Amino acid sequence: MNNVSWRGIRAFIYVAESGGFTAAAEVSGFSKAHLSQLVSELEAVLSVQLLYRTTRQLRLTEIGQGYYERCKLAMQQLDAAAEWASQSTDELKGVIRMNAVGGLIGEELLAPLVIDFQRQHPGICVDLDFSSVQVDLIANHYDLVMRMGELQDSSLMASKLHRVTTRYVASPDYLRGNHVIERPEDLKTLTLICGSVDHWTLSRGSERRTVHVEQGIKVTSGRVMRQAALAGLGVTRLADVYVQADLKYGRLIEVLPDWSESTQLTLLCPPLRHQLHRVRVLIEWLKNQFEARYQRVLSQGVDHLEAELRLKD
């Protein structure tokens, strides 16, 4: 394929992602007329129509949509190959785009390790963001993500970090004023403190029970859910790192211990990005450091961690 066609593919991707030639010109730095010419030449070479053009809108044809998806993936692979070829084997430098679950696990367990990593490798900049939804590594150009739960994409490189145990807990005062909780069904009549999910699926071996939160408190913060449980407002469901110290000192009591669940924390990386030396080094760093950090927070508790952070401030 000649150079004009490669430039045409780049132009077509800009237009497809921007939704029009004017917006694509602003993003790419090329003129609107030049982009239009490149895309027209590409369509002529392929002998297909990639775009529907009207005076008011522009959209991809069915063939154009499929061609865009394949070209986008190919360009990402070419860019990754070029970066791999040009990188130094010994020198660690460049940007690593990383996404992770938020809350205590992301912000207080993962982030300090990333900060320590950057302190040791000042040539690397880790662009770290947090989200409650699972992002698409390929579509969003991430080099690395940390996910909790079952993996669906087997084409990604996976590195296990830790198994998180979810516990159902309540304060002694709350439990004294309510019936004994012996079955998941007993939760239905109680006040439940939940996050963004308004139903709980409890597991014990092959058994599954679903409890819908019909009365209770809804907050999208694990820390606040813990505080509400400590205040005696109801039963909540939290990862062990939030509540293990409270269980140890009797501030909270675990209910339905046979129904506690274990969920895998995993680092995921696209195969092409895994070939980059700086990404592999960060993965190994996190694998070597994460477990000790998790156990420290697990034993000391959230209150100790927050007091430690206030002293640093």
UniProtKB/TrEMBL annotation:
Source organism of this protein record: Amphritea opalescens
GO biological process annotation, one example: DNA-templated transcription
NADP keyword on record: no
One GO molecular-function entry: sequence-specific DNA binding
Protein name: LysR family transcriptional regulator
Family listed: Belongs to the LysR transcriptional regulatory family.
InterPro entries: LysR-type_TF_proteobact-type, LysR_HTH_N, LysR_subst-bd, WH-like_DNA-bd_sf, WH_DNA-bd_sf
Keywords assigned: DNA-binding, Transcription, Transcription regulation
Domain HTH lysR-type: 4-61
PROSITE patterns: HTH_LYSR
Record bears the keyword Ribonucleoprotein: no
Lineage, broadest ranks: Bacteria, Pseudomonadati, Pseudomonadota, Gammaproteobacteria, Oceanospirillales
